[in-house]
Amino acid sequence: GAVVSQHPSWVICKSGTSVKIECRSLDFQATTMFWYRQFPKQSLMLMATSNEGSKATYEQGVEKDKFLINHASLTLSTLTVTSAHPEDSSFYICSARLRASNTEAFFGQGTRLTVV
Amino acid sequence: GENVEQHPSTLSVQEGDSAVIKCTYSDSASNYFPWYKQELGKRPQLIIDIRSNVGEKKDQRIAVTLNKTAKHFSLHITETQPEDSAVYFCAASIQPPPMRFGAGTRLTVKP
Asked: DSSP for B41-101?
């Protein structure tokens, strides 16, 4: 299957700083990528849909100024958590769907963010 | 928007027994229903999916059934093995994605 790579796998940052997470589709072009957040022992909650060359679509309750999403190319989307706080500590996972497909989405390995 | 409910939240079975996880969805326009397996700290892995024009799909020990009228779908794992232990998520989407996930079921298979 298609490969989606996410970087970094884990990051620890100080409260008030910003953290950037990258999501790359390695062997296919992805016009759309999705960002999820998963708290311990909970489900994957969709944060936003990232469309190449246009603004991201955020889910209700997700602050677009806090979670900046950039999808500058067909293989890369980035999520920047700005002014991070301890409550932002979570597992962030991206997924991407094949450009020519409208079904399966492939997941990155996730990024565990800890804000201290 | 779509709301997906999943039951049970935890499931413990003896090795060799069958396991069944059930999900319901709210949006009748949803037409794609994947199931994912997630091991601790790892990415979700697609194990099987079904589209709304199909009532049942099977892949070796795993099967999924869909009842569009009742808006529910189920995952069936037969002859469970300890390596089946993981968290399983159902999801529903109107193609194309995004997908809305159920709350997850933690399956434990006891040897």
From this structure: TS--EEEEEEETT-SEEEETTEEEEEETTTTEEEEEE-S--GGG-EEEEEEEBSSSPPPEE
